[in-house]
Each structure stands twice: as structure tokens, then as C-alpha cells.
From TrEMBL:
InterPro entries: DUF3108 (IPR021457). This is DUF3108 domain-containing protein. It comes from Kangiella marina.
Amino acid sequence: MITSPLAAEEQQFSALKPYSITYEVLHEGDDVGTASRQLTQLSNGQWQISMESDISYYFLSDKRRETSRFMIDAEHILPLVYQRLSETSLRSDTTLLQNFDWSNLTEQGSYKDAKWTQPLKIGYLDQLTQVTMIREHLMTQKPIPPIDISYRGSIRHHEFKVIGEEIIKTGKGDIRTAKVQLNEKDRDRKTNFWFALEDNMLPVQVQRIKEGEEQAKLVAQDW
């Protein structure tokens, strides 16, 4: 049974505490922009994660804003609406929109000229809420389970590996972190996350590697 969004107030995850992080974006060691991530609770008891980035590198500029509104039912995160707006100098602006109907276990979405309807299963997340689920398992010292991500009309199966503890440099000094890796074998892409061990497992560094080369690294400056 899926509870109402208002009941989410009674179902508190360890990871559900509001935060705001600002990042420096690096590419091959060069400062190419800024990014930010926020988690806020809405007046109706639902939650929202937002992620913004503004990158400029030579002739390329890229601005993005992602938001995910979600609720909590028992031990589950239930995405409600995910949206991503992209403005890129070499491409036309795009909008990705996904609406999750948990009462009917159906998702409807659109991206460019494509539209889709697909069945939902409890446990499906979007790209932003998956980070909250990883944090929750790290904070409660539970193994990180595989996570199925709904993305552009398909389901991606993500598996995570805890690499170990590392000390990284941030805008607030050296921080002890847990390093977690997502290895997307079918796409020859890796994403490394560093979560602050002494600060609610906040994601203080994120690195994207594609075909063996670093695409970008986000390093937290303040939170």
C-alpha cells in the first residue's frame, strides 16, 4: 500500500535532512564552471532535490537544471516528477520530463519528440533520488543494493561498489570520505562518488569517466 505524501512526514530516512552544496567543476584540472545541489522539504511533506550546473570550456557552454520531487513510503523512495532542462551551445535546448503515478504503477515521460508510457515497480528511482538512496545505506551501514533507474523510457540497472575510505581536498579543507563507484559496463562509463563520513554522507565530490578519460569532476566548496 502506498501512503499519501503527507504520511511521508512520519517516515524519516536518516539521509533526509535539508542541505545545500556548491561545487567547483573541473576538467583535466581546469576550472570550467560551477554546480550546486540542494535537498529541501516542501510544505506538503514531500521532498525535492535540485541540481544545477553552468559550464564553459573553450567554445562549449552547457547549462543544466534537474529537479526531482519525491515522497517516502516506509523504506521506499517514490519519485513523483523528474525534470531536466538543458541549454548547450552545440545542440538545441532540450527538456526531459517524467511523471510517476504510483497508484496505477505507470510512468509517463517525454524527451524531444519522443513520448512513452511504461510500467513502474517499487524501487525504481531517477538519477537524482538514487544518490539519496546510496547515502541512506551508507549512513545506516547497510550494503548498497542494485538500483534500477528510469531514464528516457528505459530502465538502467546500476550496481555500486564501495571502494574504501579516502581523504580529499575541498573548499572546506581535507575531508574523510567513503568512495563509491558506479561502473556502467555496457556504456563504458564510470561515476565515482565521495561521501563525507563526518557530515551526513553528503556527496562532496563526484567524478565522471567515459572511455577511460575524465569528463568532469565536481569538488565541493561549501555546504
